[in-house]
Write a structure and sequence with these properties.
The complex is a heterodimer of chains A (about 250) and B (about 350).
Chain A (H helix, E strand, L loop, with lengths): L7 E12 L2 E12 L3 E5 L6 H8 L7 E6 L3 E2 L5 H7 L1 E4 L11 H8 L6 H4 L6 H13 L15 H14 L4 E5 L7 H15 L3 E5 L3 H7 L2 E6 L2 E6 L1 H6 L1 H8 L2
Parallel strand pairs in A: 3-8, 3-9, 6-7, 7-8
Antiparallel strand pairs in A: 1-2, 1-4, 4-5, 9-10
Chain B lengths: L2 H23 L11 H27 L6 H20 L12 H5 L15 H25 L4 H20 L11 E2 L3 E2 L2 E2 L3 H27 L1 H18 L4 H27 L1 E2 L6 H14 L5 H20 L4 H15 L3 H4 L11
The chains are: A alpha/beta (about 250), B mainly alpha (about 350).
The complex binds adenosine-5'-diphosphate (ADP) and magnesium ion.
Adenosine-5'-diphosphate binds next to helix 1 of chain A.
Chain lengths: ~250, ~350
Amino acid sequence: MKRPHSDTLLYLNGVSVSFDGFKALNSLSLIVEKGEMRAVIGPNGAGKTTMMDVITGKTRPDQGDVVFGTDTDLTKLDEPAIAALGIGRKFQKPTVFEPHSVWDNLLLALAGDRRPRFTLWARETSEEQDKIEEILTTIRLKDLRQHRAGDLSHGQKQWLEIGMLLAQEPLLLLVDEPVAGMTDAETAQTADLLREINRTKSVVVVEHDMDFVRALGVKVTVLHEGSVLSEGSIDHVSADPKVVEVYLGR
Amino acid sequence: MSRLSLSLSLLVILGGAALLAVLNLAAPPSSAFHVSTYVVSLAGKYLCFAILALALDLVWGFAGILSLGHAAFFALGGYAMGMYLMRQIGTRGVYGNAVLPDFMVFLNWQELPWYWMGFDNPGFAILMALAVPGVLALVFGWLAFRSRVSGVYLSIITQALTYALLLAFFRNDMGFGGNNGLTDFKDIVGLDLHLDSTRSGLLLLTAAVLALQLMVARFLVTSRFGKVLIAVRDTESRTRFLGYRPERYKLFVFVLSAVMCGIGGALYVPQIGIINPSEFSPANSIEAVIWVAVGGRGTLIGAILGAILVNFGKTIFTGILPELWLFALGALFILVTLLLPNGVLGLFARRKPEKSQ
Ligand SMILES: Nc1ncnc2c1ncn2[C@@H]1O[C@H](COP(=O)(O)OP(=O)(O)O)[C@@H](O)[C@H]1O
Ligand SMILES: [Mg+2]
């Protein structure tokens, strides 16, 4: 596998993670280019979420390199430091701040100083308000801005979390199963939204839903038992006999 | 908490204390409106407990840190004030020693231990009442939050903390009066502690401090800092992926809370007239948790209300059936947990987003 070069945004090489002897990731290698959107698919338990845990500093790999840009070793950093580098994450189970309003969820996610001494005195600036308004439009929650986030529907929470991700202004977005529990119409809208986001940012999206992945129209990586089984266009991987056997064939 | 309910609470706290003080000092004892000095001191004690409850609600209700050792910070503040009051006794002690408190003379000590130096100055004593709990909370919190100790484990080590202090302060050679603690105080900043006017003055001061702390606490929880804190309370790991360092937020609020308790303890001791190691007993910290739960966790005002209500109940109850008080308290806690999960204030609250400022 080639070393990261100037167009590489994320470089995983030979990454292994085991839990009590069970290999959740088994010498996983993956390269994401700047500006790329990559879809990662694979059966349940393939290691997709664990891969995101490794990238965001939640889980330390037993072996392997995880490099952001050309030379930032992510295995040495913790979650807040990695977030500050510009890696944002949407969780498989939508996690928003339930007691807060939609507006405040976005406010807390907005890029800016995270230290207590700043937040203690911080007042909402008009730039921040404009930015939040813009995101509310993008994620179609304009009319629900003062609603308690915990009262949103499942699909709306997914969108709010994508909005929080946008508010962070990351360079790379990791999106874990964004359309789980969404209606067909919401799924199609989410695909549009991600394509829109990809105009300016790199995205790694994990998903089960094949129609959704097809709608994204991007390069696909198939994960199986913690390593890459196949990679290419959706048509290429769905024709791959190995993929058909472990995943699509079921 | 709306601005209206804040204003109302401040009015009740300050107005109530002022009313009691006026009725104590201005209404003659023969009058039906006279309030006895006993009641004034009792109200002062309730308000000190309310300070402890408010401080506890800040960490438990808003940062999810269930401290079962918060009374330790209160007691440390109390000891700092007690040391000042001891030194004010001077030659009026039983042994008439101008420098050494009676218990040191009794132990045959020849000179004042170094850590008693400076406590003849009220300003220094107040500073220590803030600094000692603050520094202890800083060290303790830094170690605990940095290693991501939370939940039950954190609660248990806070219990261990107060228990360790209990045992330490029981020892005579610690130099804090051992089992008997510090007592027989005469005056504070030159004012006789037995005078009605001094008692009323202390009540008013306590009310003012509580009011100020309530305003500070409200500012904190409605600020962006407070929003992060609530986010940390409910979904700590999520805040990390947004780039926040929850341990810093917890540490800040934990130290602030400890300092608030220290002030409460310093106001408590002159009104009660004694501080001894039993103030460190784990049960005290647990009682404080019950006050907050009864009033309504995460509401600030509920904590104050809970402290006053439960202690009022305790005063009445222990007057009638003292040996059953702990059972009554336990039953109260169970009932509140089952029937009023949001406390007394929860009866009035509607479900709505945490209010912006
Ligand atoms: N913290 C953990 N402890 C033990 N096993 C885990 C842990 N996290 C994930 N696993 C296991 O690792 C495997 C991969 O999980 P995951 O990455 O969540 O899969 P996916 O997201 O592809 O469905 C699963 O078998 C899962 O049970
Ligand atoms: Mg998963």
